[in-house]
């Protein structure tokens, strides 16, 4: 049963990630983000969708400031729990517009929802728990990002960011899993092999 295998891997890696020291999260995140912002695919992107990190995920808050400085449009996920749906929404003022979501990460409050067209997003920075050398991913198990990508597959660049310990040789995949184009760690950039 694939779901069971996924759950086992998810638990194993989360157990490591949840026990990281703050200093480790900070140091590694900086390396990963620095790799990302130096890539042409990032430099050439004007509309950037970024998750807002929590629970020792690769920290994206410095990336947010970086994008602001470069006058890029920052789009963040707003989740509709009942439908397991992500609404991409334009963030203008990080200080003013964000509140803590049901799950615990930050998201825009309803009054600041500014939905954008998925097709207009150039690059999506994707969170995740486990990734593999083919750029497949396992998240928290909601299927949010797979649903989100299901109708825009090749129209946006999908980039996972993760610590090296989150990379395994192969994660089990199901028909609805959408592979990413790149996975970036502090050690390397993994590219999806096409075909
Ligand atoms: N920062 C961030 N934002 C994100 C995601 C994410 O993974 N990280 N998502 C990616 O899809 C979506 C939200 N999905 C989520 C689904 C479940 C849980 C969660 O914490 N679930 C369990 C704990 C899971 C576990 O420890 O096994 C919980 O409710 O406690 C979090 C986010 C959209 N936004
Ligand atoms: N495109 C889709 N349409 C309908 N249901 C889907 C789709 N993609 C995934 N799902 C459902 O979502 C559930 C969770 O999928 P999966 O375990 O791959 O989530 P995940 O990638 O770990 O989570 P997330 O994307 O939220 O981080 C699956 O049981 C699946 O039935």
UniProtKB/TrEMBL annotation:
Q: Where does substrate bind?
A: 52, 57
Keyword Magnesium attached: yes
- What are the boundaries of the signal sequence? none
Which reaction is this enzyme known to catalyze? (6S)-5-formyl-5,6,7,8-tetrahydrofolate + ATP = (6R)-5,10-methenyltetrahydrofolate + ADP + phosphate
A GO MF annotation of the entry reads: 5-formyltetrahydrofolate cyclo-ligase activity
**Which EC number(s) does UniProt give?**
6.3.3.2
Protein name as annotated: 5-formyltetrahydrofolate cyclo-ligase
**What organism does the record attribute this protein to?**
Caldisalinibacter kiritimatiensis
Its ancestry begins with: Bacteria, Bacillati, Bacillota, Tissierellia, Tissierellales
